[in-house]
Amino acid sequence: MASNSTWRAQAEAKRQSILDAIPEKWRLATPVPSATEVRDVTGSYIQQFLSKREIEITESDAVDIAAQTTTGRWSAVEVTEAFCHRAALAHQLVSCLHEVFFDAAIEDAKKLDAYFAEHKKAVGPLHGLPVSLKDQFHIKGIDTTMGYVGWIGTFQGEKEDPRFGTKESELVRELRNLGAVLYCKTSVPTTLMAGETVNNIIGYTWNPKNRLLSSGGSSGGEGALMALRGSPAGFGTDIGGSIRIPAGFNHLYGLRPSSGRMPYEGAANSMDGQSTVLSVIGPLAPTARSLTLLFKAVLSQQPWYHDPLVLELPWRDAIVEETRSLIEQAKAGNSTLAFAIMHWNGVDRVHPPIARGLKLVEQALQKMGHRVIPWNPPSHTTADQLLFKTFFMDGGVDIKHHFGLSGEPKASQVLIVEDGIELSVSQLAELNVAKREYQKQYLDYWNSTAELTGTGRPVDGIFCPIAPHAAIIPNQFGAVGYTGFVNVLDYPSVSIPVTFADKTIDVRPTNPSAALEEHIEWNYDADTYDGAPVGVQFVGRRLQEEKILTLTEYLGEEISRAVGAK
Amino acid sequence: MASNSTWRAQAEAKRQSILDAIPEKWRLATPVPSATEVRDVTGSYIQQFLSKREIEITESDAVDIAAQTTTGRWSAVEVTEAFCHRAALAHQLVSCLHEVFFDAAIEDAKKLDAYFAEHKKAVGPLHGLPVSLKDQFHIKGIDTTMGYVGWIGTFQGEKEDPRFGTKESELVRELRNLGAVLYCKTSVPTTLMAGETVNNIIGYTWNPKNRLLSSGGSSGGEGALMALRGSPAGFGTDIGGSIRIPAGFNHLYGLRPSSGRMPYEGAANSMDGQSTVLSVIGPLAPTARSLTLLFKAVLSQQPWYHDPLVLELPWRDAIVEETRSLIEQAKAGNSTLAFAIMHWNGVDRVHPPIARGLKLVEQALQKMGHRVIPWNPPSHTTADQLLFKTFFMDGGVDIKHHFGLSGEPKASQVLIVEDGIELSVSQLAELNVAKREYQKQYLDYWNSTAELTGTGRPVDGIFCPIAPHAAIIPNQFGAVGYTGFVNVLDYPSVSIPVTFADKTIDVRPTNPSAALEEHIEWNYDADTYDGAPVGVQFVGRRLQEEKILTLTEYLGEEISRAVGAK
């Protein structure tokens, strides 16, 4: 174990090397104002450092960008440089990057432009699209630290491993095949097991919309970078909410797919080999259709022939068509779509902005003509217990080893303790059975809603909070149950942005209705939360990602329109 | 723990109650001759106890029977009675049943006939088809013992469990929906972890084709019953070969699907909650197309809405069509199908009948015009180690508990010891990672054959032994590696019957070629094995059950024709 001074020096050197990799021309000339001075550094704040053309490019969504870059109208180099510049600014404003490799990205972009010039066609559907990655994915020549000081200059903590500097994760290989440009890796909380993003290398990743608050976690760097439009789309991972929380905290869309759809092969992880609740990869982006673009593009690479845990389930257009016809029917005034809303889970009481966000969604759904029913599922306390037993199953053996490589301390936000009790294999088998029984109960409950919807089908999806609160005050994230039950069930779930916390509205009502009182947590600071993004979660049935993404494109737009019209 | 005399008495009473449930008219009047007198009790031997009409019905395959019963040409009652009679005889000849409930079956058949009379249509695609089930499936009013004396009159060993006598497994519910008639449950080795079928209740399940030998295990009762045509089709389970071994040992077809296709929900099992290598349910039958009938019928019930571990993968006709067009092309003399043959796995040397069986398959494939290449995969020693670490992970805790309920002793054939060392969760995680890495290597190797086939595609399937030997001499089954590697990889695999051991041919050649010597085990008793069925295994890629079943229907027929023509 290295001494205290050693890990501090290593972390400091690494932190500096990230800043040093930013070209001089893109460095901020003056110190960033404090959060109390300037809470929100998105929009016009960051735009002041960018050209009009850079703003045009970086504020286009992935679908629009790909439409330009795959047809040669925009050069890959120009687009890549714009995002590199904006990502560099984002990092200086909220500390959201672990690795920057802009030179390599621009070299790759040049090759893509040359390919297009020669063949008059794109390499693939993501030709020239910059894609950011959470710092779990291995890229040739680039560190993967996952926030661990002990991983700097090693392969996942192994100093002599020949894969150091040479290995690429399966997703990276596929993204390159698709024509995507890789240019940065985003920050994570060390261990990944936290709803905020903090580590001993780059410190704390702040929320760009309200720098008093967290960007969420564990894909917090993705969330913060995208809130500042330093990335048009990227990939995070989710074992308890790590995609949906930062998506929700940063007014983004983020998909947690069912396990077995996206290739995790060759990516770093915590507690690798834990197979009760699998961490999964999913896309985050400012628009819903960007999630579809990325998800579908990866599936076109047939990842099941390269990752033994991926299921042979290509993108299913038939499900998209079927869902679209339900949407068309609804738009024509004859909706047979039905949704459930879970205003609270019976465990963690929600803050006023979250209660309001769900209410807005409920009103929007009703206005669209959909049937909305309440959601009274099997106990979510059980889901919480199953999730935490899973997280704690190795008693902290894995994280203790990796913190021990450098001697650095664990952040208080990490949900796992280093000296817990390790389960026996028999106890684990009991846990697996209990989890399966809970999944069966939930499945049966979902089926049972066919009797309530009036559509002849069970509900098409459920809406619920992402967390009891909007983007959280540092060190206060704890209740992972709103997202975690989805991981226990292995359902697809998307974060959909809805509104922002507003201290003038989100106050304790003088005469709260009994229904509202039931789920409102009054220990809430309206002033600090002011401006924090409020998202909701939209949950579907296992492996029905095509349906959920298609519905999200429609519902997200309609909700946004309905909320905006208020 | 009950005393020695208690468990013996309980087992004896249960054994007698099975015989007592056979109607007087179907009991054998004279003792069964010894195995040395009459080895083979299939065919004409069992036919002597049956009417011509009973023989016609019971020697039709499931597809032909369903064609008659779903159209009202044959009554469900007549078909059910014929199979009940033949199953009763089979049990008296080789001891292959754990439960008989012929009266309930005939009552169910009467209801099906009444339904057809009233509605002029079938309840479902299996209307009136008798289906046998391995004794892991719960049926209302019927015991499930899985061979354990301590489970008699309980729910999986729990005396006060309200599910006793009331619970039905998900597969049972679906089979009833489909119109199948349930009439018996077949024998298993206690714990299911053995390649022979033996327990303290019904003793040893003998091979009907050669009663000096084993029927295989753990779905040995299914195998023996079907060899005697006491069942047209049934379901077993497979965690290391438990469907394919008894199918191979009894000249049957048997499919081990990938995990996640057939519903295991609500069935009894050993080491429930062990999730490194999952036991899976699959059909066995005398014809390949019967496997397809059952598999497709179960999928039509959308089991993914009732079993949280089933994947939403309906029967995919598109894959069937694609495969059929490859077959048509081959039949027209332009095959682009390519197969690999693994004559031995580098671990367990095979007996002469097995080597000959594979040679016959190779010749048949070549005659059909397909490309045949050798199979030089990643080490199968690794697969063996991964499988046994998985089987042994709980140190025997589970089986010790269940044997302890009655105090009965464990049979020597059971692969697991009762006092082993239990893994820690961290060790299990390492095992899961090692397994995934092996799966990845195998996947890459399979992909790499695209360079060898000349078809532009990797091989379409691989042929290999099911075991080093044909149906085994009691107490000699040990090498589970030929089937077990498939469970580690989670690939679909079918047993295909090929030929029979023949003491006049399967002898040590006077001048063995070097290639033959490499994989032939000379410690082999040609006389005892004479007449034992010889099958081969046909292995496909994960979740490609539709392709494998479609190819099996074609290949099984062609191989049988080619072998018969010799």
From TrEMBL, chains A, B:
Keywords carried by this UniProt record: Hydrolase
E.C. number(s) listed in UniProt: 3.5.1.4
Binding site for substrate: 192, 218, 239-242
Every Amidase domain range: 78-549
Organism: Penicillium canariense
Name of this chain's protein: amidase
Active site as annotated: 134 (charge relay system), 218 (charge relay system), 242 (acyl-ester intermediate)
Family matches, as SUPFAM superfamilies: Amidase signature (AS) enzymes
